[in-house]
């Protein structure tokens, strides 16, 4: 189980690097496979860590809003998805 404090204080640099690692593996698949695989992975990870998907989404949105312009690793991952992955 992920403690709420850890969930809400995830390191944005590490999150950006993890996001980039996942995107790098997904990029060779069609868009619909990327979307389904990402969603199913998210659901499976939440279940495995016994954490609410809604809590993770809220924490991720808060991290994004607070860090996307200040953390190069996170900004790079977001830019990559928006500019390179999008069809």
Task: Describe this protein's structure.
The structure is a single chain. 76% of the residues lie in helices and 0% in strands. By secondary structure, the protein is mainly α. α2 packs parallel to α5.
| Overall morphology | globular
Helix content class: over 70%
Q: Which regions contain 5 or more consecutive residues with pLDDT less than 50? A: none
Radius of gyration: 13 Å
Task: Name the average pLDDT.
Answer: 93
Helix run count: 5
Strand-residue fraction?
under 5%
Main β-sheet description: none
Question: How far from one another are the termini?
Answer: 36 Å
Count the beta strands. 0
Spell the H/E element sequence. Answer: HHHHH
Alpha-beta content class = mainly alpha
Which features does this protein show?
0% strand; single chain; 87 residues; mainly alpha; 76% helix
Spell out the blueprint of helices and strands:
Elements: H1 4-7, H2 12-26, H3 31-48, H4 53-67, H5 72-85
Helix pairs in contact: 2-5
Give a short synopsis of this structure:
The chain is built from 5 helices and no strands.
């Amino acid at each position: 189980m992920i403690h709420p404090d850890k969930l809400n204080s995830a390191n944005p640099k590490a999150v950006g690097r993890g996001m980039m690692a996942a995107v790098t593996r997904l990029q060779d698949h069609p868009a619909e496979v990327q979307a389904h695989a990402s969603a199913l992975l998210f659901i499976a990870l939440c279940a495995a860590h016994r954490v609410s998907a809604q809590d993770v989404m809220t924490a991720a949105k808060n991290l994004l809003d607070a860090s996307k312009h200040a953390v190069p690793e996170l900004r790079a991952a977001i830019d990559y998805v928006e500019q390179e992955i999008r069809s």
